[in-house]
Queue: 2 jobs
Job 1
Amino acid sequence: MSTREQHLVELVDADGRAVGSATVADAHQEPGRLHRAFSVFLRNAEGEVLLQQRAAVKTRFPLRWGNTCCGHPEPGETVTTAAGRRLQEELSVRGVELTEVGVYAYRAADPATGRVEHEYDHVLLGSLPDGVAPEPDPTEVATLRWVSPSALRAEISAAPEKYAPWLPGVLEVLAERSVGR
């Protein structure tokens, strides 16, 4: 079991209030324990979002396409602090200002690994600074690509099995935030 699987996550109730903690491994065992998480979208000047294909060694939904990066804050850690740390760990990207745009709660079982995601997922948005090129950690990320949100919706509709199950929901949260901009 990886060291990351032994990290603590913050268990929450349906309203996002902290109610305890558990290891990552324990929180993701069937039936899944609701815990705080975050999903980051980085966008470029053209309005495209950066997607990552999750590494083959991931314990949940390996090789599926997901948002730019995601993870779990430690108990008591802010989601923006944790997200900044994971952007640095996964993509070697530092100093991006992140704004929370909403929350998406979901539960999804991974048929390939038997693990369960049951997350109170804070959706964060930031812009990749000009001239910054992400350098993915191959133990976290198989590859990266840019895509417009509208093209991504069409791709997910055509082949949902290629995407992490939370991606449609967090993309919808992002879309709701973008209305009226």
Job 2
Amino acid sequence: MEPVYASVVSTARMLWLAQGLKFEISGVEHVPADGPGVVAFNHTGYLDFTFAGIPAFLQGRRYVRFMAKKEVFDNAIGGPVMRALKHIPVDRANGAQSYRDAVDYLKRGELVGVYPEATISRSFELKGFKSGAARMALESGAPLVPTIVWGAQRIWTKGHPRSMGRHGYKIMVGVAEPIAPEGTPEQLTARLHESMRAKLTELQDGYGPYPPGEFWVPAARGGGAPTLDEANAMDAADAEAKAAKRAAREQQGDAN
């Protein structure tokens, strides 16, 4: 039992109750009851990870060590909590260390949570996957645990205001069958993507209704979200803008 993690879970449950959230959790039996697992989940909003850990908690009160960007750990309030929960900081300028930390956790029998997409999908469909989750599984011998969260984008996602009041949204979390760590990183990543794509379609089909034009609804289902191609173009434009700002700061630093 971990007192800090247990208290955070209790607090989260009270907040969810206050918001009137309605949960549908499936596939709990696919989470390893003991031993390691790479919990790979989709990224539609800022709160996905809080829901992605529910199946593990229901499977014998297991805790997931989530990989999160270093900036969260630098926060004066959130940082101490993240460290107390033994989550893993990811410094995108030095990803090797976070990868090693994750593999060490897995070799000690922990569950490690990771976003294969790396960044939020503005289309709410699956983006291309990075190979990190597969490489962790192969190196540690841990199975991949494909997990899908659906509905969390309604609460807080990129480019839209938070909706933290009592709205009664439905949140679905589904876990697919574990994938054995076999093959090349590319082959394993492809199997993971296909498993998660199928589970996402299953949960989307069971969610509804989808009001036409709503921002949280995928374009393919009549919503206002951008298509995957449009979202990828937006991400590329954002990356170019950030690179330009970074270059400008470096030039300014050289000038000084």
